[in-house]
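pls design
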C-alpha cells in the first residue's frame, strides 16, 4: 500500500526558509483558539509586506484580538516603540501544529507569536494575545525582558521596584511588544555552511579530564586579551587562552550554560542577574551577552557564528566542548512569572502540574516550574534542541542540570524514562558524552549512580568523602565518619554506585570536590561558614553543609602555618580527584587558588567575586599560584601517561557477580606493609594506607595516603623499586624519601623563567613589564617580619611573589625532621615484635610467604597529611 501524501506542515516546529524567498512558520499549541505569526520591522524602513497587509489603526472601542481576527494579514504601527508589526493568521491546529507561509523572509528578521484562547488560570489556561511570545525553536534572540507589568499575562503593577498582582486574577491587556525580547531568524540554507567544520576530538571516557568554566568569568579579567575580547566567546578561542588550557593539560571543556538566559523576576527586582545562566530563555539561541560588541551589533547570525568559531578553535586545539544545559525548567518561573514563550503558547502541555490542583505548577527544581517530559512533544523539543547544538554548533557532549526532573513518570524517577531512551538511541546524541547531575528537589531526589549506561554522573559521594577526610576530619583524633573503607571505595571508582550495568564502571563516576555551585577549592580551606551577604538574601541562601575547614582563621591569613595547612589540604583534594579511578573534573581557577571570598552560591554575582583573577601570572618569580598551577599540570600529565588509568574494567558489574576478581587489579596495604584485615576496614581511625594498581604488561603504580598529622613510614612491596611521581606536600616544602625522613624542598627564589623570553613589543610583553615594574615598587613589597614556629616545630621562609599571603611558604626544618625520624625509629623498633605477634594468626598467606623470604625492607617516609603516587621503575 502506498503511503499517503505528506502534509506540508507535518514536520517539526520552527521557521524554515523556502526557495521562493519566503518561509514556512510552524509552532505547537494544542489548546489555543488562534495563533498569529508576527514580523517586527522598523517604521522608517519600507515594509516587505505592504502589498499583502491591511493597515490597522488604533481603536479603543474594538479589542486588539477582534481587529487582528478579521484579516488574514494585517499590519499596525506601535508609535511608542517605533516599530511596525505585521500579523499573519495561522492555520490549525493540525495535530497540535499551527502553520503559515509568509511570502518574504530574510536573515535577521525579527518575529514572534501571539496566541488567543481561554483565560482560566484556575484550570491552568493562560492565553493572552496581548503578549508577544518567542519562537521555542528560534535560533536568535534580540532584546531582553524589562521589569514592567506588560511582561505579565495577569493584571499587575510595579510598586517600589516589585511586581504586585494576583496571578489568578484578570487578564492583562497591556501590549508587551517593546518590553520583551523577540526571536531573530537565521537562514541556514547555505550548502557550504559545514565545509570548514573541524574534526571532533572524541576523547575516550577513560582518558577524559573535565574542566568546568564560565565563558565570561574565565576571561573577563584576562590581561592577555584586548579589552574587546574579555569575557567573550572570542576571548575563550584566543590563541593565548588555548595555550593556557593546553599547558594545564585538560581534555574536555565543560561550559556553564551558553543557551540564552533571562534573570528571574526576583533577581531583576533586586537589580541582579543570573550570572550562571541556569534560567533558560531559548533552547536554540546562544547567550548574546557573551559575544563581542561587534558581533552583537551585527546581529544574531554573527553571535552564533562566534560561538561556532569558538567551538572549532577548541576542537582544533584538541579539546572537547561539553555544554551545561537546563531542560528541567524555564525562565518563566512559577504562575506569578512573566509570559515569554511556553506559558503563553500552551501552559497545560509544557509544564507539569500538581495532581490535586491543576492551577498550580509542580516544582521539583526550586525554580517555580518543571517541564513536563511525560509529554512526547516536550521530549521531542529537547531532543531537537540537543541535536541542533551537536550538529550545527559542534558540541561534543552535554551535562544535564537536575537530571532526575527529566526522568519522572507520574512524579517518580525511573531510569527507563522515554527521554533517557531517546538520548541513548539517537544516532547522533547516543555517541556523545552525556553527564547527569543526579539530584533534584522532588520525591527521593538523590539518584546518584541510577541513570545506567551510557550516562556518566556527578558523584557527590566522592565529593563529600574527599572533603570530610581531608578537611572537616583532618585534625580529628576520634569520632571520624570516613575511614579506609569509604576512601578505598571512592578511589576505586565508586563501584557501589556505578557498577550497575554490564560494562558500566568507574568512568561513569565524574569525580570532583568543587564545582560552580559551592565553595571554590581555596574557599573550602579558608572558610568554615558561607559568606553570601553580597547576594542580598541575608546569607540564608547556599548550602550550610560544606565540610570545609578554615584551619583556625576564617578568611585570608598571612600566618605561615595556616597557609601551609591550607595549601596541603587543597593539594590533597586535587590529588584525590586526579588519582582516583573514574572521570576527574576540576573547577576553573582551582588550579591556581581562585577565591570567591567565601560565597558558596555566587549565582548572581557577575563581577570580580566570580571573575577569575590572573594578576599573579606575569611575575618574574614564581608565586604560590604558579607553584599550584605547575603541580596540577604535572599531576594531570602523570595521570594521562599512566595506562592503568585508561582501563574501563575496574569494578564493573562483572566484578560484582564474580567474573572478574577485584584483587586481580588492586591490592591494599597498611603502612607496616601488611594486608588490612576485616576489622581494619571498619576501623575509621585508620587514616593511612596504600593502594596498588597492578597490570601484567604495564608498570604498576601505588598510591600512598597519609591522613595522619605526622610523617609516616610506609613499607612498600619489596618485589620492585618505586619512583615518586607526585606528592601533595611538595608545594609546602616536603616530599617522600626512602628511609626514615622526608626530603626537604626549597622553593625559594625560583624564577618564572618564561617571562624573560616574551618579546617586549608584544601585548603580553607589555603586560609583563607593567606587572614587574609594579612588583619592584617598594610600596608593593611585603614587610619582612619573623614568623613564629608552628606547633609542629616547622620553620618558615619568605619567598617573593604577588601579595603578602602568597609570599610565605612553610618548609620542614631539617633538624626537626631528624628528631621526628629518630622518634619514629624508636617507636618502630618497640612495635615490631607486637605487630608480628598480633598479626601472626590472621596475616594472609601472601604476607606470611613474604615474611619468610625476608626481603630487604623497602621503607619510604611520607609527609604528614599528604597523598603520593609512585610507579615501579622496571616491568617485571
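designed seq:
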Amino acid at each position: 500500500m502506498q503511503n499517503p501524501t505528506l502534509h506540508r506542515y507535518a514536520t517539526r516546529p520552527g521557521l524554515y526558509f523556502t526557495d521562493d524567498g519566503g518561509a514556512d512558520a510552524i509552532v505547537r499549541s494544542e489548546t489555543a483558539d488562534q495563533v498569529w505569526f508576527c514580523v517586527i520591522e522598523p517604521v522608517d524602513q519600507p515594509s516587505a509586506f505592504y502589498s499583502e497587509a491591511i493597515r490597522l489603526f488604533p481603536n479603543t472601542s474594538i479589542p486588539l484580538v477582534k481587529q487582528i481576527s478579521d484579516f488574514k494579514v494585517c499590519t499596525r504601527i506601535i508609535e511608542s516603540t517605533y516599530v511596525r508589526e505585521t500579523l499573519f493568521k495561522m492555520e490549525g491546529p493540525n495535530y497540535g501544529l499551527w502553520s503559515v507561509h509568509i511570502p518574504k523572509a530574510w536573515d535577521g528578521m525579527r518575529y514572534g507569536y501571539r496566541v488567543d484562547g481561554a483565560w482560566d488560570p484556575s484550570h491552568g489556561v493562560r492565553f493572552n494575545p496581548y503578549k508577544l511570545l518567542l519562537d521555542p525553536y528560534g535560533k536568535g534572540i534580540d532584546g531582553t525582558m524589562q521589569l514592567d507589568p506588560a511582561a505579565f499575562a495577569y493584571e499587575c503593577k510595579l510598586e517600589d521596584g516589585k511586581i504586585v498582582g494576583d496571578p489568578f486574577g484578570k487578564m492583562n491587556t497591556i501590549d508587551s511588544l517593546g518590553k520583551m525580547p523577540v526571536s531573530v531568524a537565521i537562514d541556514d540554507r547555505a550548502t557550504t555552511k559545514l565545509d570548514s567544520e573541524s574534526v571532533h576530538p572524541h576523547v575516550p571516557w577513560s582518558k577524559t579530564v573535565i574542566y568546568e568554566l564560565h565563558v565570561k568569568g574565565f576571561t573577563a579579567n584576562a590581561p592577555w586579551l584586548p579589552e574587546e575580547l574579555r569575557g567573550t566567546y572570542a576571548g575563550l578561542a584566543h590563541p593565548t587562552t588555548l595555550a593556557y588550557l593546553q599547558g594545564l593539560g585538560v581534555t574536555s571543556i565543560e561550559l556553564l550554560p551558553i543557551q540564552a538566559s533571562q534573570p528571574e523576576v526576583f533577581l531583576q527586582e533586586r537589580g541582579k542577574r543570573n550570572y550562571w545562566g541556569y534560567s533558560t530563555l531559548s533552547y536554540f539561541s546562544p547567550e548574546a551577552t557573551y559575544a563581542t560588541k561587534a558581533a552583537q551589533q551585527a546581529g544574531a547570525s554573527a553571535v552564533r557564528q562566534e560561538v561556532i568559531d569558538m567551538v572549532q578553535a577548541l576542537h582544533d586545539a584538541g579539546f572537547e566542548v561539553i555544554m551545561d544545559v537546563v531542560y528541567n525548567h524555564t525562565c518563566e518561573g512559577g504562575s506569578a512569572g512573566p509570559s515569554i514563550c511556553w506559558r503563553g503558547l500552551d501552559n497545560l502541555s509544557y509544564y507539569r502540574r500538581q495532581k490535586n490542583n491543576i492551577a498550580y505548577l509542580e516544582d521539583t527544581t526550586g525554580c517555580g516550574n518543571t517541564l513536563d517530559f511525560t509529554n512526547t512533544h516536550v521530549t521531542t523539543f529537547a531532543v531537537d534542541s540537543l541535536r541542533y547544538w551537536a550538529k550545527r554548533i559542534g558540541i561534543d557532549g552535554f551535562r544535564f542540570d537536575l537530571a532526575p526532573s527529566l526522568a519522572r513518570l507520574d512524579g517518580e524517577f525511573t531510569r527507563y524514562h522515554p527521554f533517557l531512551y531517546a538520548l541513548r538511541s539517537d544516532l547522533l546524541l547516543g555517541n556523545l558524552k552525556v553527564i547527569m547531575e543526579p539530584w533534584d528537589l522532588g520525591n527521593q531526589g538523590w539518584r546518584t549512580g541510577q541513570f545506567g549506561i551510557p550516562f556518566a554522573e556527578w558523584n557527590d559521594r566522592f565529593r563529600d568523602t574527599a572533603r570530610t577526610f581531608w578537611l572537616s576530619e583532618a585534625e580529628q583524633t576520634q569520632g571520624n565518619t570516613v575511614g579506609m573503607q569509604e576512601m578505598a571505595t571512592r578511589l576505586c571508582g565508586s563501584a557501589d554506585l556505578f557498577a550497575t550495568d554490564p560494562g558500566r564502571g568507574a568512568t561513569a563516576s565524574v569525580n570532583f570536590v568543587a564545582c560552580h555551585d559551592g565553595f571554590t577549592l581555596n574557599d573550602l580551606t579558608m572558610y568554615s561558614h558561607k559568606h553570601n551577604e553580597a547576594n542580598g538574601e541575608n546569607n540564608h541562601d547556599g548550602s550550610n553543609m560544606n565540610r570545609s575547614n578554615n584551619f583556625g582563621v576564617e578568611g585570608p591569613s598571612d600566618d605561615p602555618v595556616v597557609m601551609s595547612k591550607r595549601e596541603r589540604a587543597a593539594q590533597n583534594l586535587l590529588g584525590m580527584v586526579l588519582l582516583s579511578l573514574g572521570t576527574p573534573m576540576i573547577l576553573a581557577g582551582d588550579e591556581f587558588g581562585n577565591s570567591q571570598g567565601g560565597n558558596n552560591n555566587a549565582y548572581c554575582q557577575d563581577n570580580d567575586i566570580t571573575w577569575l583573577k590572573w594578576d599573579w601570572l606575569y611575575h618574574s618569580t614564581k608565586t604560590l599560584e604558579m607553584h599550584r598551577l605547575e603541580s596540577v599540570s604535572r599531576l594531570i600529565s602523570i595521570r594521562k601517561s599512566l595506562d592503568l588509568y585508561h582501563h574501563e574494567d575496574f569494578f564493573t558489574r562483572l566484578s560484582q557477580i564474580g567474573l572478574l576478581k577485584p584483587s586481580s587489579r588492586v591490592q591494599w596495604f597498611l603502612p607496616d606493609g601488611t594486608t588490612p584485615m576485616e576489622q581494619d576496614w571498619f576501623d575509621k581511625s585508620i587514616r593511612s594506607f596504600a593502594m596498588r594498581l597492578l597490570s601484567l604488561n604495564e608498570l604498576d603504580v601505588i598510591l600512598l595516603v597519609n591522613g595522619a598529622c605526622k610523617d609516616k613510614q610506609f613499607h612498600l612491596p619489596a618485589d620492585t623499586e618505586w619512583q615518586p611521581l607526585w606528592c601533595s606536600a611538595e608545594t609546602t616544602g616536603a616530599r617522600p624519601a626512602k628511609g626514615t625522613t622526608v626530603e626537604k624542598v626549597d622553593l625559594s627564589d625560583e624564577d618564572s623563567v618564561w617571562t624573560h623570553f616574551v618579546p617586549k613589543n608584544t601585548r603580553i610583553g607589555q603586560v609583563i613589564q607593567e606587572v614587574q615594574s609594579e612588583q619592584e615598587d617598594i610600596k608593593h613589597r611585603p614587610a619582612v617580619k619573623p614568623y613564629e614556629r608552628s606547633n609542629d616545630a616547622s620553620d618558615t621562609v619568605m619567598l617573593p611573589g604577588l601579595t603578602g599571603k602568597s609570599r610565605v611558604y612553610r618548609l620542614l626544618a631539617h633538624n626537626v625532621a631528624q628528631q621526628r625520624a629518630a622518634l619514629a625509629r624508636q617507636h618502630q623498633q618497640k612495635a615490631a615484635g607486637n605487630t608480628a605477634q598480633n598479626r601472626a594468626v590472621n596475616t594472609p598467606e601472601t604476607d606470611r610467604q613474604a615474611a619468610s623470604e625476608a626481603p630487604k625492607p623497602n621503607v619510604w617516609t611520607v609527609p604528614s597529611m599528604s597523598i603520593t603516587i609512585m610507579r615501579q621503575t622496571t616491568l617485571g
